[in-house]
Amino acid sequence: MLAANNPARLAHLEPYLFDAVGPHFQATGQLAPEDFWLTLIWKANRAKNHERRRFEKLGECKFEEAVGRIAVALTEAGGLEERLRILMVKWGMKLPTASAVLTVLYPESFTVYDVRVCKQLGRFEEIAKDDFSEGLWGEYRKFVAAVELAAPSGLTLRQKDHYLWGLSLRDQVEADLKAPVPALKPRKKSQKNEGEAAVVSSIEP
To answer: Do residues 93 and 124 touch, judged by C-beta distance below 8 A?
Structure first.
């Protein structure tokens, strides 16, 4: 882990990934398992163990070895499409997480496929669970192009993703505050409490 001697950097995970992990990978081709794990936490924390189990099953190896093999394969890949193919076909990742990994490692060419951004663009939500194919690659490239066009010029691809994601969050906040406060649902009595009540009622005169 690049932040092993400066753990305070991990308090701001996204800057650490893009300012340290990605540039280090591009310069050396090396990707520490801990930093790959942090990338999974950043994008899909609840699914990280699912990803780990699948890597170990498909690679027939420990997670650490799988990450090393992924780093080598991505470095030796012939192009952008091949890099996405490696993560989705060889290692079974879906587009949202695969694109997040590639965005950290190649931020000038990839952007995170995210439901919030899709909602701002008004399209592309239908490809979220698709397997890799030439058609999916074509749709993902259209998604990247749409991100480029939908955000103000003069921004990097990463900044444009931030802009659209922020618009989505702003819209959600405004909608939340305009809506009435949801009513509290009545609590259901637990079976234990119901049983205790039945015992009490049976012994009352």
So the answer is: no
Cβ burial 145-173 (10 Å sphere, 16+ → b, else e)? ebbeeebeeeeebbebbebbbebbeeeee
Q: What share of the chain is helix, strand, coil (3-state, %, to 5)?
A: 70, 0, 30
Residue with tokens 């931030």: 162
Name the region of 124 (left: φ>0; alpha: ψ -120 to 50; beta: rest).
Answer: left
Please give the pLDDT value at position 15. 96
Q: What is the pLDDT of residue 91?
A: 98
CA–CA dist 43, 83 (Å, integer): 18
161: left (phi over 0), alpha (psi -120 to 50) or beta: alpha
Structure tokens at 61: 């190896």
Structure tokens at 111: 């952007």
Task: Please provide the average confidence, as pLDDT, over all residues in the chain.
Answer: 91
For residue 151, what is the DSSP state? S
Residue partners of 123: CB distance under 8 A and separation at least 6: 146
Structure tokens at 185: 């649902």
Q: List C-alpha distances in Å: 151 to 99, 109, 145, 154.
A: 19, 16, 11, 9
